[in-house]
Amino acid sequence: MLDFNATYHWISHYEDNDLYQVFVNQAARHVPLSNFMALDFNPGLDEWLILEEQYMDYASDFDLPEINIHLPMNQGVDDALYAYLSEAGYQLAITELVSLSNYQAPRGKSQPNQLELEEITAASLPAFLAFQVHYDRDYGLTYQEEMQGYYQEAFLKTNIDQVAVFDSGQIIAAMQVIASRDYLEIDHLTVREDWQKQEIGRWLVEWAYSQAKQAEKTLILVCDADSQARKFYDHLGFVGQGFELAFSRPIDSDFKKQFYYQD
């Protein structure tokens, strides 16, 4: 069964037991998708409070700036736990895992002649990194700097392709495509604002879909539920496989006090 465990995680440390998995990347402590606890059961309020204590042990060991706990796929929370999470200042993020198995390209659509879709090379990597800076900076300087490390590390991996669309030598769109045993995953597909709604995103997806078919793999990706991106992928024929709730909040001084947590 396809679930979120099929997706790629940029991590340096991993632990698991019968109740949860822990993902950590000490080089990317401010990247939420590289530092979280993924539960294998649906907790009530009392169990959540115990999980918080256990998470704080990892936060102390790895100097994590926030607590970030993901529920099992397609699971919600009961009223008592949701009331606590709201009162405690947790933020909710809902993501969806989608797949594309049967894509039909529309007829009569083509790209302007000056556009070129190319895989990133050592020569074009600086331009790729600069393109990503523009979109990552909205999440803060530290996040932006850590993500630059991610893209540079990904460039060296044999199972990750970085692809961009160039307009007269300038990058106007980019993505990463990550291969695993059974899947090909689209990651960070981004189209420059002035080129959106001009079929550039579709072109990138078509490239990834072609690679997946050649490799006899299923094309997948994770996106924010109820977002413009989700509507775009739905339009292309991606099918939802499941959703995931993630609750996070900063580990500030007030939150630390309840655990007698000391720096």
- Strand content is 25-35%
Q: For this entry, what is the oligomeric state of its chains?
A: single chain
In the CATH scheme, what's the topology name of the largest domain?
A: Aminopeptidase
Structural class of the secondary elements?
alpha+beta
Organism: Aerococcus urinae
EC number: 2.3.1.-
Keywords: Acyltransferase, Transferase
Domain N-acetyltransferase: 115-262
Can you describe this structure in just a few lines?
Helix content is 32%, strand content 30%. With 263 residues, it is α+β, with helices and mostly antiparallel strands. The chain has two domains: 4-95 and 244-257, 3-Layer(aba) Sandwich (Aminopeptidase); 104-236, Aminopeptidase (3-Layer(aba) Sandwich), CATH 3.40.630.30.
Describe the fold and architecture.
- The chain is an alpha+beta fold and about 260 residues long.
- The protein folds into two domains: about 110 residues, Gcn5-related N-acetyltransferase (GNAT) (Aminopeptidase), CATH 3.40.630; about 130 residues, Gcn5-related N-acetyltransferase (GNAT) (Aminopeptidase, 3-Layer(aba) Sandwich), CATH 3.40.630.30.
- It is about 30% helix and about 30% strand.
- It has an eleven-stranded mixed beta sheet.
- A hairpin with a 3-residue loop joins strand 1 and strand 2.
- Helix 3 runs antiparallel to helix 4.
- The chain is globular, with a radius of gyration of 20 Å.
- The termini are far apart.
- The mean pLDDT is about 95.
- InterPro entries: Acyl_CoA_acyltransferase (IPR016181), DUF5613 (IPR040549), GNAT_dom (IPR000182).
- It holds the Pfam family DUF5613.
- Keywords: Acyltransferase, Transferase.
